[in-house]
Amino acid sequence: VSGAGGNSEAAADSGNSNAEASSQPTAGSDGTGTNNTAPADPAAEEKKVETIDVYYTDSQLMELVAAKATISYTDTEAASKYSAAFKALQASDNTDLVPLWGKIELKSLKFDNGQVVIDIHKPVEAQLGAGGESFAMGALSKTLFQFEEVQSIEVLLDGEKVESLMGHVEL
After folding, report:
1. C-alpha pair distances (Å), 171 with each of 57, 87, 165
2. How far apart are CA 35 and CA 149, in angstroms?
3. Which of 105, 138, 137, 109 is nearest to 122 (CA)?
4. CA pair distance 18, 149, nearest whole angstrom
5. pLDDT (tens digit per residue) in 136-151
6. Between the CA atoms of 86, 121, 161 and 112, what dihedral angle is there, to the nearest 10 degrees?
7. What is the C-alpha to C-alpha distance for residues 154 and 115, in angstroms, rounded to an integer?
8. Residues 164, 132 contacting (CB under 8 angstroms)
9. Alpha-carbon dihedral angle through residues 163, 13, 148, 1, given to the nearest 10 degrees
10. E strands within 59-171?
11. Alpha-carbon distances, residue 36 vs 24, 29, 59, 72, 134 (angstroms)
12. If 0-12 CB within 10 Å is exposed, 13-18 middle and 19+ buried, where does residue 153 land?
């Protein structure tokens, strides 16, 4: 999946929700001034919180439905925000919204130069039909492309490039 331009609807819907989470004050400063040699430590503990759009399907697998989810992540690891967004795709608090990625295991996620590379494991029970697979890819794309810095998404299955995730939709 590449290019946020192909997903102008999600880009338009997201408005300016990109990385507008406010910084949280850090704790742990002892006030003595002797702890200044490790400035990365407080930043490593700092979490940002952001409300994003996450996409699920209805209980009949007839359409994608946007819902709000709150994610928390650290700025110290570039992929932290996108891993949190993927995890939000895996669960829904609303019983009317079905998470299409719920049974998929996230093995790793990396972000570099605008590309998100997701390595997943898909157990047999996670297999969806053509419509479900199409919705799953749409949900992933719309969720990640709302972040303007994401320009492309590559999905690996157990570390390997594949033409299709479940045999129906070309990646």
Report:
1. 20, 20, 7
2. 34
3. 105
4. 9
5. 999 999 999 999 999 9
6. 30
7. 7
8. no
9. 10
10. 64-73, 97-98, 105-112, 115-121, 152-157, 160-161
11. 19, 9, 53, 26, 51
12. buried
Both tokens of residue 149? 């810095």
Tell me the two tokens of residue 162. Answer: 């594949």
Q: Write out the DSSP string of 74-86.
A: -SSSTTHHHHHHH
Which is nearest to 140 in space by CA: 102, 96, 94? Answer: 102
Which one is predicted more confidently, 26 or 118? 118
**Tokens in use for 133?**
């697979």
Q: pLDDT, tens digit, for every residue of 20-32?
A: 333 344 444 444 4
Own/partner contacts of 72-78, CB < 8 Å, gap of 24 or more, are 72/47, 72/48, 73/47, 73/48, 74/44, 74/46, 74/47, 74/48, 75/43, 75/46, 75/48, 76/40, 76/43, 76/44, 76/46, 78/111, 78/112
